[in-house]
Amino acid sequence: MASLEELRKTRLAKLDLLKKAKMEPYPAKVPRTFCLADAKASFTDFEAKKTQVSLCGRVMAIRGQGAILFLVLEDGKGTFQAVVKKDVLKPELFELLVQALDIGDIVSVTGTFFVTQRGEQSLLVEMWTMATKALQPLPEKWHGLTDPDEKFRKRYLDFIMDPETRQIFYKKAQFWKVTRNFLEEEGFLEVETPTLETTTGGAEATPFKTHHNDFDLDVFLRISVGELWQKRLMAAGFPKTFEIGRVYRNEGSSPEHMQEFTNMEFYWSYADYNDGMELVTKLYRRIATEVFGTTKFKYREHEFDLAVDWVKIDYSVEIKKQTGIDIATASDDDIKTKLQSLKVDYEGDNRERLVDTLWKTCRKNIAGPAFLINHPKLIAPLAKSVAGEPNIVQMFQPIIGGSEIGRGYSELNDPIDQEERFKAQEKLLTGGDSEAMMPDSEFVEMLEHGMPPTCGYGFGERLFAVLTNKPLRETQLFPLMKPK
Fold first, then answer.
1. What is the rounded distance in angstroms from the CA atom of residue 254 to the CA atom of residue 356?
2. Of 323-327, 355-359, 371-375, which has the strongest mean pLDDT?
3. pTM for this entry
4. CA 164, CA 158: separation in Å to the nearest integer?
5. Residue 210's CB: how many other CB atoms inside 10 A?
6. How high is the pLDDT of residue 9?
7. Higher confidence at residue 13 or residue 255?
8. pLDDT of residue 306
9. What is the CB neighbour count within 10 angstroms for residue 359?
10. Distance between CA atoms of 281 and 283, rounded to whole angstroms?
11. Which domains does the chain have, with CATH numbers?
12. Which candidate, 425, 463, 419, places its Cα nearest to that of 442?
């Protein structure tokens, strides 16, 4: 088998053939009547009229020999067969095609539609020109890219060889379109908030740091979609806002975690977490039916139906049910011992991290759909406490397929309480917890001017990954790769 370098040299020689024949191998524009999907849709009408058309596409297969060749073209919208006959095409063009054309080249072919003896809709080629000469071969057809690293590093080849993978991203675009349409129908205003911040807020994650040269100031890439900014908009009199945008978290990778991803967050004044749960249920069902055409899904070992009633699960009760640990009375050492017995790795030894790790171990066993409620205050520094339960907050998280697919609160709008919680988070930061929330004195000042009761909620593309039953990495067009 020839090496890649030998194959490239052969293709370079064919490039020279094209140039000697005065055929531009990389023209700015080539004849094209419509895409290949439209060619199939318009076939009957154009065949009857014997109208000449031009089609373009990448050559995915070349069959036949001698006086007749069959080319399979693909353009991202569909496939179509072009038939090249020696007695139809000019002799010099036929010979040039035979000598210079390779699988992977992009061509424009002009001719008339006809149906082959085998009943296949085809184009009888009367003229052709090169649109793009490929100097590298495509991966072997039946195996494609088998190395997972190469699959992501050369994502364009993955999409060429696996159209089903490419379809995921048409569906993902529809996923965000349905989300946007739903929120706009519900009266939410789409906004844009800063992606560079002097303090990160709205989530607990390690941020990426960069430097602002003009201000000579270190800033952070945001870890939430403008939570503290959108709350300022609530105080300013905007009743409903949302934003869909990129966020960045300098943390580990896993099937459900990436360092860069798309999130959506909405804020809704004069609403609480009960209103939020009702709206989120409607939104997720809308996404399921309009994007996937079903409410029934499988993710890993779990099966769930978003159309059924969503149960509510108490945070502490569920942990005790699954592990025997009462987080209200258990010591840190008790939780560590339990995690060790469950063979669960954990980072950090402050209580917030320990309790959260214990819960995440339990979460994997819940198929859902469910809402997790009654979280302890120490893990939700921006949520309002439950009336009469100062250590429990009005927070909710959808649980489907053993995963947390979003997070929302009745937002804390008491400036004194918020300042105290920021101080508690600052102690965690100084104690080495890089994921603790940074204090924001200007946000507290805003609360002192008065923010109405508000429900806030956010979810990211993890929801899309779960509904497609794929690792998050596979649902990103170009996940970050280490340079070779």
1. 17
2. 371-375
3. 0.89
4. 10
5. 12
6. 95
7. 13
8. 98
9. 22
10. 5
11. 4-138 (2.40.50.140), 161-310+368-475 (3.30.930.10)
12. 419
